[in-house]
Amino acid sequence: MTNVATKFVRRPTGRRTGASTPSGWWALAFIAPATIGLVVLYLWPFLSTLIKSFQDVPAFGPATFVGIENYTTLIGDGDFWKAFGNSALYTAIILLGIPLAIALAALIEQVGRGRSIYRVLFFLPVVTLPVAIGMVWRFIYNGDFGLLNYVLSWFGVDGQFWVADPRFTIFAFGVVGIWMGLGINLIILGAGLQAIPKALYEASALDGAGRVRQFFHITVPLLSPSIFFVTILNVIAALQMFDLIFIMLRGVNNTALADSKTIVYLFYEKAFVQFHQGYGAAIAIVLLIVIMIATALQFRLQRSWVFYG
Amino acid sequence: MAESIVRRTPGPRWRGKPTTTWPIHVILIGASVFMVVPFVWQILTLFKTTAEVTRVPPTILPGDLSLHSFETFFSTVPFWSMFAVSTGSLALRVVGQIVVAALAGYAFARIPFRGRNVLFGLFIVMLMVPSQLFLIGQYELVRDLGLLDTLPALAIPGLFSAFGTFLMRQAFLTMPKDYEEAARLDGANTFQVFWYVMLPMARPMLAALAVLTGLYSWNDLLWPLIVSPSGENRPLPVGLAGLQGQFGTDYPTLMAGAFVCSIPLVVVFLVLQRQFFAGIASSGLKG
């Protein structure tokens, strides 16, 4: 964000005042659609969610102010804490996909021929409907005749009901989540890899460094800003996981749903299925706080591991 | 290792002899198999009969290429209407995003006006708030306008985004001012400068924004689910989810549906690969 600041500072053209000047009118015309959009579609809905979180909002009839009651109910709600734990677990599993993405990005960068084919293959899940992905994986995970159990049986491993058994559900979703997100992570990390000066590899090769050493002593440190960015994106996306639960559990009335809800799923259920919008709003506000804390934590931690050349 | 400098080929980047890439290919092909197996399994399944699919152990290849699954899918699901709804919503969103974000992005980058920094700060703040925080308010807006179960309802929240505005502002900031000043000397007004000079130069970023918007619009499930309570005017994700409720264990039909509904975007991606990758990479500007 530092370059944003400098752009603000250096502005040689004369600063005009108000909308009375020609430049002011132009600015108004250019900015009006976006500002209306911001206020109507984002700012007001956001404030409305904030206000509702302090109200009891029945499906029909007027809302009443209840102070922090929604929040106190939330803190005492076992379902919420279960959803919170599930979201945290899912996010932790998704994070395991990042070292995998780094390794694959570095490998793809090293091949000459076939690089674009690999990129396309890894990107396919990104352009496939998440609903379709959920359906296919539900079938693969099926405990009776799923492909996964069949493959495991070759190695003498007992099959499981990967989705229907709440002990495994979140882990099963985590694998799908990693599989779905790999393509995006690879593109962002690949762009970061291409920015690393080749001369560093040549110089270190002259000093006798092998590929593995180069990877850990050049690639990883110089890629760390991209890794940091990918981590931020993945955590935010993982904390908002919804689609897979809806498709693999709710849509088919799977009983594992009760134990496998995430924060956003719980929000959807409260606000738009049961229409307890006040309580739903409180969940959304808590989600915002969780995401803000997770992001702030990462910005704090980055000082110890992200290398800005 | 010293000879690597001398023998460097233009393709691969930081290694010695070009012949040593095969272990890398082995690893990457292994990983690719993991990526592709679900798709292959989906396609094999949609040619099978329900009896074949529920057999233990599973049969890998379909016995006789049954097209029954496609018949069931197309006869029970209004695919073309769903496709039209998805495409219409995507088109409205992409056009809206491009027009609104390009105009605002240009003003934020180039037209000085009072309160600009404060207003832009507000955009940045909204950029960081997760989308669920807006859903209740957006739902009420659409409901109060009487638009539930309509195409506009699907498109409305996506007509504009703080992210698009931010992206376009960044694009205009990086452009040289010389062209603009030359056009002004020739008597062009602000809109003419924007339309004839700046916008054409911003085309790559507009394409990136279009791809990101389109991808999000096409794949989104939660918003369409909320604003299509009756199931009329459903886009593909909602319709496909409904199919699953109806045909819970008829896996060939489900796989046929998943396949047919996913194909349009996959084809677009294969044609516009470069724009997709550039779009995703440009989202990295967000940091």
From TrEMBL, chain A:
Compartment(s) where it occurs, according to its Swiss-Prot or TrEMBL record: Cell membrane
Keywords (A to Z) from UniProt: Cell membrane, Membrane, Sugar transport, Transmembrane, Transmembrane helix, Transport
Residue intervals of the ABC transmembrane type-1 domain: 83-298
Keyword match Oxidoreductase: no
Coiled-coil blocks: none
Family assignment from sequence similarity: Belongs to the binding-protein-dependent transport system permease family.
Name of the protein described by the UniProt record: Multiple sugar transport system permease protein
Natural source organism: Streptosporangium subroseum
From TrEMBL, chain B:
A GO biological process held by the record: transmembrane transport
Membrane topology qualifier: Multi-pass membrane protein
Database matches in CDD domains: TM_PBP2
Location within or outside the cell: Cell membrane
Domain of life, per lineage: Bacteria
Keyword terms, alphabetized: Cell membrane, Membrane, Transmembrane, Transmembrane helix, Transport
Start and end residues of each ABC transmembrane type-1 domain: 83-272
One GO location term (cellular component): plasma membrane
Family: Belongs to the binding-protein-dependent transport system permease family.
Name this polypeptide is given: Carbohydrate ABC transporter membrane protein 2, CUT1 family
Species name: Streptosporangium subroseum
